[in-house]
Write a structure and sequence with these properties.
Strand content: 25-35%
Largest sheet: 5 strands, antiparallel
Shape: globular
Number of helices: 12
CATH topology of the largest domain: Tachylectin-2, Chain A
CATH class of the largest domain: Mainly Beta
Helix content: 25-40%
CATH architecture of the largest domain: 5 Propeller
Radius of gyration: 24 Å
Number of domains: 2
Structural class: alpha+beta
Length: 437
């Protein structure tokens, strides 16, 4: 390997070196010890050493997440045999963990072992029936194994230069048929990519990979591969949106509500960073809500989330797309959109993920998981039309979480773990005044 796993791995997991209350050293990391042994002695010898190590459970800390981190680092280094071995050890040590079996199944996908991959994904589904990602992969296993094989031939480290040049990560723009965006780089066979935003100058692209916001940058040599943003720290975050003046980035952040604001029992809220000379400044709390979108005239739309209280406990929430008003950077009012959308809140118990076109005349949204997108149009008098169900006109029925590009030319959306894009003309041709002609 070009780099010592043991050195890199230290960046992924922190090993305690402080003293205990009895002034005795804390337990050493078993995962770090295994990483060093693989690098210095090879996999077979390292596994023999680890078998002896497991006889000394009191002397070492066997942490599931540390072994997951090591296995994923080995996958990044394309050492697939070692990754399988590490993940297999994790299933032995933590046999009740669906995550351990998911990672092992994922590693088998990289080795092309269909039988073992299928077996372990089924274990994940049995242990956690709510794991929709495992079910999605099982339903499309052969095609995803083929995608993984192609991705292996073009694998990049986070932030590494890809050589791709030109707008939109150098991808060929789609027409009226949706295309997967940047396959193998943004949309990956074993990933879960969704919710994206370009900077107005087209030189930054942000998106979610699971609950981590990633960024690609267009530099002199070309686009860099995705890497995690730094402004979210160690908290999970999602659904980034850059305003059309490029000065702010909104996102959802899973962290405790700051002091002085009404506490959200789910430890989640909308935050915003201001653009600085070096990137983005410190995140500031905006309020309870989800998925911000803005138009050129500065109007802000968001999914308002209301908490329904029952005997001093929060039993459920409901969410609807609204136009938001901010004062001093804080949400102070949410207004229904009215017109043809007035019945939304009666017809659908949930409306979410609004995306307003740059000119403010078209809004996209979804109403539940995998029910396709809806579009509504603002007429000359400022009244919203009745929503149009886009799947009735050929869009994927699994489409959701849409985003306009800053130039308004394309629409991005999520479907079954991938990000797709399509010409915005697909939606504009369905505008009521055009359909009457």
């Amino acid at each position: 390997m070009k780099k010592l796993i043991s050195i890199i791995f230290v960046l992924l997991v922190v090993t305690a070196v402080t003293l205990t209350a009895q002034d005795r050293p804390a337990k050493s990391s078993a995962a770090e010890r295994l990483a060093a042994a693989i690098d210095r002695q090879g996999l077979d010898t390292a596994l023999e050493m680890f078998a002896e190590l497991r006889e000394n459970l009191e002397g070492y800390d066997f942490n599931e997440q540390e072994f997951n981190a090591l296995g994923n680092k080995l996958l990044d280094d394309q050492d697939y045999e070692a990754a399988v071995a590490v993940f297999r050890l994790n299933t032995e040590m933590f046999p009740d963990s669906p995550d351990a079996y998911y990672n092992l199944a994922k590693a088998y996908m990289y080795t092309g072992d269909r039988k073992c991959a299928e077996k372990n994904f089924k274990i994940v589904s049995n242990k956690n029936p709510d794991n929709f990602i495992a079910e999605r992969i099982l339903a499309d296993l052969d095609r995803r194994i083929e995608r993984v094989a192609r991705e292996r031939k073009r694998s990049y480290q986070p932030g590494q230069q890809t050589g791709l040049k030109g707008p939109y990560l150098g991808q060929k723009p789609p027409g009226m048929t949706p295309e997967i965006f940047a396959p193998g780089i943004v949309s990956k066979a074993l990933g879960h990519a969704f919710s994206c935003t370009f900077s107005p100058d087209g030189k930054e692209f942000y998106f979610n990979h699971f609950m981590t916001i990633m960024v690609c940058r267009w530099e002199k040599e070309g686009w860099t591969s995705p890497e995690p943003v730094t402004f979210t720290g160690n908290y999970r975050a999602h659904e980034p949106h850059i305003t059309l003046d490029g000065k702010k980035i909104y996102f959802g952040w899973f962290r405790p509500t700051p002091e002085g604001f009404k506490k959200n029992p789910f430890d989640y809220g909308i935050y915003v960073c201001d653009r600085t000379a070096d990137g983005w400044g410190k995140p500031n709390y905006v309020g309870i809500g989800m998925f911000v979108t803005t138009s050129k005239d500065g109007k802000v739309y968001v999914t308002e989330k209301q908490l329904i209280e029952n005997k001093e406990t929060y039993k459920e929430t409901y969410a609807h797309i609204k136009q938001a008003t901010l004062e001093n950077g804080i949400f102070v009012k949410f207004e229904p959109l009215g017109g043809g959308l007035a019945a939304l809140y009666v017809d659908f118990p949930r409306t979410a993920h609004p995306s307003i076109s740059p000119d403010g005349k078209t809004i996209l949204f979804d109403v539940s998981e995998e029910t396709s997108l809806f579009a509504a149009y603002l007429d000359e008098s400022g009244v919203w039309s009745k929503p149009v169900h886009l799947s009735e006109y050929g869009l994927l029925t699994s489409a959701g979480i849409a985003n306009y590009t800053p130039d308004g030319k394309f629409i991005f959306f999520h479907s079954k773990g991938d990000i797709y894009w399509i010409s915005s003309e697909f939606v504009e041709r369905l505008r009521p005044d055009k359909r009457k002609k």
